[in-house]
Amino acid sequence: MSYQDPTRLDSGITTGTAQSVAAPNSLLNINGVTLQYKTPEHLVTATYRVTFDIHTGDRFVLLGPSGCGKSTLLKSIAGFMPPVEGDIELKGRKVKRPGPDRAMVFQEFDQLLPWKTVRENVAFPLKVNGVSKDEADQRAMQMIEKVNLTKFLDVYPHMLSGGMKQRVAIARAMAMRPDVLLMDEPYAALDALTRRKMQDELLSLWEDLRFTLVFVTHSIEEAVLIGTRILVLSPHPGQVRAEINTHQFDSRNADSPEFAATCARIRGMLFGDAETAH
Ligand SMILES: Nc1ncnc2c1ncn2[C@@H]1O[C@H](COP(=O)(O)OP(=O)(O)OP(=O)(O)O)[C@@H](O)[C@H]1O
């Protein structure tokens, strides 16, 4: 990735508003995107001229305080909300509407159809999207095998653990062969222990499947753990504050002093503490 006017700090941190020049391997380009909600009384600017690129295989995290426009940005990438300024391109094509190339994975408790088995849950969206029954069943079986749930093919969601449900949800999304998976605060409602298990599960699935992920959170620790790259957004309206490489962190070193120092530095950026920010 390259910028016209970068201010690059040590350990892979780039700050400030940047103009993107698409890198050769970039998959998704967000170019100067301003997003607004029009209500009868107000015009709410959710993000202002936000620019970044996502590369194939990134675990890209959108991080920022409540109300900075992370979910709105994800909705726009999904194609549900057109920018009022700027554009979003996937593989060089402008995003205009939702499509099977961008799969949204919702919170674990509301995403699977309770009256369908694991196999039926994974095959269902394929069939709805016009894939023949035989091919849908075959693709579903392959993905279920990849997420290690073959033994649970004919089981209903209520009989699965949270981690297994997440695997089914990701298998279902991946069976559509999307270019990118979108996750909006998927673990926000979970207790700390379960949340950590789900995060580890997601990381191990990524190791196996190497999908491109865009993940929204307002937890700094979660961002550093899950992300290979983090976009730090300013408070409302969201603008790019920094971009940080965090590919060196995962479950194995989440208790290390380096991990804690990176979190502290991001905290400084978010809350304006210059001492910890640099
Ligand atoms: N449907 C809507 N109509 C009007 N304003 C909205 C709507 N949805 C969101 N907003 C406003 O847009 C801004 C960005 O909201 P958004 O939900 O994208 O933020 P967020 O960073 O995801 O916050 P959180 O972390 O709390 O989920 C906020 O000021 C919010 O109040």
From TrEMBL:
SMART domains: AAA. SUPFAM superfamilies: P-loop containing nucleoside triphosphate hydrolases. InterPro entries: AAA+_ATPase, ABC_transporter-like_ATP-bd, ABC_transporter-like_CS, ABC_transporter_ATP-bind, P-loop_NTPase. PROSITE patterns: ABC_TRANSPORTER_1 (PS00211), ABC_TRANSPORTER_2 (PS50893). Keywords: ATP-binding, Nucleotide-binding, Transport. One of its GO terms (molecular function) is ATP binding. Pfam families: ABC_tran. Residues 28-262 form the ABC transporter domain. Belongs to the ABC transporter superfamily. This is NitT/TauT family transport system ATP-binding protein. It comes from Paracoccus sulfuroxidans. The lineage of its organism: Bacteria, Pseudomonadati, Pseudomonadota, Alphaproteobacteria, Rhodobacterales.
